[in-house]
Amino acid sequence: MEKRHIAILGATGSIGTQALDVISRHRDIFDVDLLTANNNADLLIRQALEFKPNNVVICNGALYEKVNDALSGEDIKVWAGMESVNALVQSGSVDVVLASMVGFSGLEPTINAIKAGKVIALANKETLVAAGSIVTRLAREYNSPILPVDSEHSAIFQCLQGEHTRIEKLILTASGGPFREWKAEDIAKATREQALKHPNWDMGAKVTIDSASMMNKGLEMIEASWLFQMSPDDIEIVVHPQSIVHSMVQFTDGCLKAQLGAPDMRVPIQYALSYPERLSLDTRRISFSELAHLDFHAPDSNRFPAIELAYSAHRIGGNMACIMNGANEVAVDAFLKDRILFHRIPEIIAKTMEKATFVALPDIDDIYSSHNEAKEIATSLI
How far is Cα 373 from Cα 351, in angstroms, rounded to an integer? Predict the structure, then answer.
């Protein structure tokens, strides 16, 4: 393989740090060109000193001097603000952009990277949830491959390698989160600490709360629909507590293909960065002689109404998924700050979807307006 120069947007988050772990094991193949962070200046400095990127961006301009002073003796350019991120993702020295910024903030730099024809390793599902039709159209127009990093979408992508037949159905697996076996009344009053205790995966706070509400699976359904050009009616969600089967594809002859492995996000991250090659990784191997059983069952939409909200938003189309996503970001942030109880997250999303302005054929300006309006409505509801 020729050496690949990687830009990591959101380097100090869960995906970013695990991507750097992957890169550290294959320095002959991967080189870090750009690292960005929002507020975690200390970790960004340590990462920059270890990986020696050409550029680093601290999005919070108030922390620029701290980062710049710490790296003043290095051959590393230090920048501040999202404008710098948007410019640097288009650099000719970047081959692959790992889009792992949290939430809606990842949309603009991802679009800029697409317009520069970069390979996009997409870990930011909100980009496709909020603006799937626009992003996928631009990716085709600028010949910019989008390679999925989410474990479920990577699993589907891997199952499709070598296949030329029509897909009948996608099956997304869900761990069920920390409240999988809880009663509805107990879920309603769950604390932040309880919601952040995911049984299988090590993820950032926002994604972990989305997993607890199962909104994460709704967002992944919408992402899968855009990535693989499938109707939401042909995407099924099943709860699989062991998180060994990461997702499945059903073909028109009734055959199913599944991708299995230990729950380790470094696997899909590495596959996206090295595609179409596979590289060695020290992840835990599955022993079927020790694995007692694999369980699957349908999710309970009464206890986890967020899933149906996502299906409804995607079926309505237009800007509705963007509205849903914006409301969810506000509600999750409020829950993490102990401003609302857990059961209010889907309530706020549903009410925001009712109140916000619907646009059937949104352009990119409509998407930004819809996101802002949804945030304002959700904030007023809180």
Answer: 13
Question: Is residue 95 in some structural domain?
Answer: yes
**95 shares a domain with 15:** yes
Q: Which residues of the chain are modeled with pLDDT < 70?
A: 201-202
Q: Does residue 171 contact residue 238 with C-beta atoms inside 8 Å?
A: yes
Question: Is the domain of 85 the same as that of 181?
Answer: no
Q: What confidence tens digit (pLDDT) does each residue in 251-285 have? A: 999 999 999 999 999 999 999 999 999 999 999 99
- Residue 362 in domain: no
Rounded (10°) angle between helices 107-115 and 126-141: 10
Condensed to tens digits (0 to 9), the pLDDT of residues 22-67 reads 999 999 999 999 999 999 999 999 999 999 999 999 999 999 999 9
DSSP state of 229: T
239 has which bridge partners? 174, 297
Whole-prediction pTM: 0.94
Q: How far apart are CA 114 and CA 120, in angstroms?
A: 7
CA-wise closest residue to 14 among 185, 223, 203? 203
DSSP 195-225: HT--SS----HHHHHHHHHTHHHHHHHHHHH
Residue 322 lies in a domain: no
Q: What is the dihedral of CA 50, 55, 59, 63, to 10 degrees?
A: 60
Regarding whether 59 and 195 lie in a shared domain, the answer is: no
Domain span holding position 81: 4-148
Pairing mode of beta strands 55-58, 30-37: parallel
Kindly report the backbone phi and psi dihedral angles of residue 143, in degrees, each rounded to the nearest multiple of 5, phi listed first: 55, 50
Q: In the chain, what's the furthest Cα-to-Cα distance?
A: 62
Let me know if residue 330 belongs to a domain: no
